[in-house]
UniProtKB/TrEMBL annotation:
Gene that this sequence comes from: or4e2
Membrane topology: Multi-pass membrane protein
Classification of source organism: Eukaryota, Metazoa, Chordata, Craniata, Vertebrata
MF-aspect GO terms: G protein-coupled receptor activity; olfactory receptor activity
Protein name: Olfactory receptor 1509-like
Membrane-spanning intervals of the chain: 20-45, 100-118, 138-156, 202-224, 236-257, 269-288
Species name: Xenopus tropicalis (Western clawed frog)
GO cellular component: plasma membrane
UniProt cross-references to SUPFAM superfamilies, sorted A to Z: Family A G protein-coupled receptor-like
Annotated PANTHER family: OLFACTORY RECEPTOR (PTHR48002)
Length: 308
């Protein structure tokens, strides 16, 4: 790689705007990032503090909040720093490291969403066997599997990208290091690598999304058979929250990774959505549409005030 790669750093050009506009964007993204951090930390603390939320559904939700924190923190702090600087650069090794951890956490989140979909399917379609099927051991194994698959996926993606020669130019049309914009900078034929990456990232995101949709087809048919209007409302509310979050995450991922690495103007907006907006909306959606979480947050808040 040392013989074929002459580039030692990359330059981000996605947010190359006038300085005043960059400062405005900095404060907007800083507020979004603070909301993202505080919302997800609040979810994790609430689930940990309230014994009533110690069940598989909220166990997975706490893990989702943790992954969202890690996933966004790989890209957003660097983006905020770049918005305050004139030259937005990152070293070659720093770029590869960012790419590695971004795909590691993103892939883990894909499979965690799939596990959450399966949990809801068992809870609604097989309620009598729920506690037997979704026991603690299975939940731990499912979470461990998400991290393991993320590790394997990220290693494959990073290895494929590092094998490419980069001779120039070094301007990345994005605000972080991802595979599609990096492939466009390689000074060799990348058709085979492009196809392998689409097969890997594209089918991971699409496959997990379809698995969740299939589980919700079964859930929907079961909900329609529930005689109690209150039971239908509660089941529907919980599932809509999960399906909304899943759509916000998988929609942009499928759009970016299920096509060749050609540049489109809308790519910048799409990447901002699934790296910043979607992780910030996750705790909001789950909190606003879930009475149990809202009640628990109020309890934890009151308990904190009383302790003071």
């Amino acid at each position: 790689m040392e013989n074929s790669t002459k580039i030692t750093e990359f330059v981000f050009v996605a947010f190359a705007f006038p300085q005043r506009f960059q400062y405005c964007m900095f404060f907007i993204f800083l507020i979004l990032y603070v909301l993202l951090l505080s919302g997800n930390i609040l979810i994790m603390m609430t689930i940990r503090a309230d014994p009533h939320l110690h069940c598989p559904m909220y166990f997975f939700l706490a893990k989702l909040s943790f992954i969202d924190l890690c996933y966004s923190s790989v890209t957003v702090p660097k983006m905020l720093a770049d918005l305050l600087s004139d030259r937005k650069t990152i070293s070659f090794n720093g770029c590869i490291t960012q790419l590695y951890f971004f795909h590691f956490f993103a892939c883990a989140e894909c499979f965690l969403f799939t596990a959450m979909g399966y949990d809801r399917y068992v809870a609604i379609c097989k309620p009598l066997h729920y506690s037997t099927i979704m026991n603690r051991k299975l939940c731990l194994w499912m979470v461990a599997a998400t991290w393991t698959i993320g590790f394997v996926h990220s290693n494959i993606q990073t290895s494929l990208t590092m094998g490419l020669p980069f001779c120039g130019p070094n301007e990345i049309d994005s605000f972080f290091c991802d595979i599609p914009p990096l492939i466009r900078l390689a000074c060799s034929d990348t058709k085979m690598i492009d196809a392998m990456i689409v097969a890997n990232s594209g089918f991971v995101s699409l496959g997990c999304f379809l698995a969740v949709l299939f589980s919700y087809i079964g859930i929907g048919s079961t909900i329609l058979k529930i005689r109690s209007a209150e039971g239908r409302r509660k089941a529907f509310s919980t599932c809509v929250s999960h399906l909304t979050v899943v759509t916000f995450f998988f929609g942009p991922c499928v759009f970016i990774y299920m096509r060749p690495s050609t540049a489109l103007k809308v790519d910048r907006v799409v990447t901002v959505f699934y790296t910043v907006i979607a992780p910030m909306l996750n705790p909001v959606i789950y909190t606003l549409r879930n009475e149990e979480v809202k009640t628990s947050i109020k309890k934890v808040w009151r308990r904190g005030i009383l302790y003071k």
